[in-house]
Amino acid sequence: MGFTHFDTDGNAIMVDVSDKEITHRSATAAGCIHVSEPVLRAILDHTAKKGDVLGVARVAGIMATKQTSHLIPLCHPLNITKSTVDFSVDEPARTIEARCTVEVDGKTGVEMEALTGVQVALLTIYDMCKAMDRTMEITDVRLLHKDGGKTGCFRRQETPPVIAVSGVKNVGKTTFLEHLIPLLTEKGLKVAVLKHDGHEFQPDDPGTDTDRLRKAGAIGTAICSATQLRVGRDWTLPGAETAVRKLSSAFPDADLILCEGFKNSNFKKIELIRTDVSTASVCDRETLLAVATDGAPLDGVPAIGLTDYDKAVTLILEELGIV
């Protein structure tokens, strides 16, 4: 597809939409700002000197959507029918996400309006808090989805699909995953794995130099040899969804994330029930793809054997829409 903002002589032009039909169009964009702990507390406790940071940022973002054609040279002026800006706060990660949704009945879409609204909202947070901290970072500005128009619907895949292998302790989750991964790899999938630890773990081996330096106050540690590099930072990840996003960012080429554990999450799961360890399900049945068991099946839930790895792979591929 060629660019439409240039004429035959290469001059920039506003696209002629005269012959297009008026349709309902919408778009949602998102972005994040990473702040320090004092800044986050000032925002949440409403103690920032410049006032209600998120309240002002929301209004700024909405106003920006209506001014997009004045900022982006070749955008069409639009009679916007809806514009909203909402925030979600991840306190442990000290991150505020802004989401902007814009709607219009018109001849052209509102992706740029949504993206502009997000960025101005985040810039407003920066402006209102910069006296406290100028190291704030704005990241991950992206279009999440758009509807309407000739190109139809767009939905961003925020993370790869996630499937969990769950069950009680010592039921054999790691062994099950060890057999699944090579079979899925043979099918052409790139698999990343996230393990849930029910107990606190040490990111650096106790007593090692990196452990001592981390305890001394370093925000992160790294150690390298001629052939290896180990980096540690942000070891406390708040919740399964955030952990998945972190893993997805580290491995953007992953086709699938397999989780070990996370029995209480909303992820789709294969639950293992081994009769010499447990006989009852510990997962929400609405999340179960199947139960792998050597005992009685659960009503209404597909059952496979504890070593029926090929069948498990088939179920996963069906869930992903590959077979």
Topology (elements, then pairings):
Layout lengths: L22 E12 L2 H8 L8 H14 L1 H4 L8 E11 L4 E12 L4 H19 L7 E11 L6 E2 L6 E5 L6 H14 L4 E5 L13 H7 L4 E5 L4 E5 L6 H11 L5 E5 L7 E6 L14 E6 L9 E2 L4 H12 L3
Parallel strand pairs: 6-10, 6-11, 7-10, 11-12, 12-13
Antiparallel strand pairs: 1-3, 1-4, 2-3, 4-5, 8-9
Summarize the helix and strand pattern as letters: EHHHEEHEEEHEHEEHEEEEH
Strand order of the largest sheet: 7-10-6-11-12-13
Into which percent range does the helicity of residues fall? 25-40%
- Give the C-level CATH assignment of the largest domain: Alpha Beta
Question: What are the salient characteristics of this protein?
Answer:
single chain; 323 residues; alpha/beta; Alpha-Beta Plaits; Rossmann fold; 6-stranded parallel beta sheet; 28% helix; globular
Question: Can you characterise this structure?
Answer:
The chain has 323 residues and is α/β, with parallel strands linked by helices. The protein folds into two domains: 133 residues, Alpha-Beta Plaits (2-Layer Sandwich); 139 residues, P-loop containing nucleotide triphosphate hydrolases (Rossmann fold), CATH 3.40.50. The protein contains eight helices and 13 strands. Strands 7-10-6-11-12-13 form a six-stranded parallel beta sheet, sandwiched between helices. A five-stranded antiparallel beta sheet has the order 2-3-1-4-5, covered by helices on one side. Strands 8-9 form a two-stranded antiparallel sheet. α2 runs antiparallel to α4 and α5 crosses α8. The longest helix is centred in the middle third of the chain and has 19 residues. It starts with 22 loop residues before the first strand and ends with a helix. The model has no long low-confidence stretch (mean pLDDT 86).
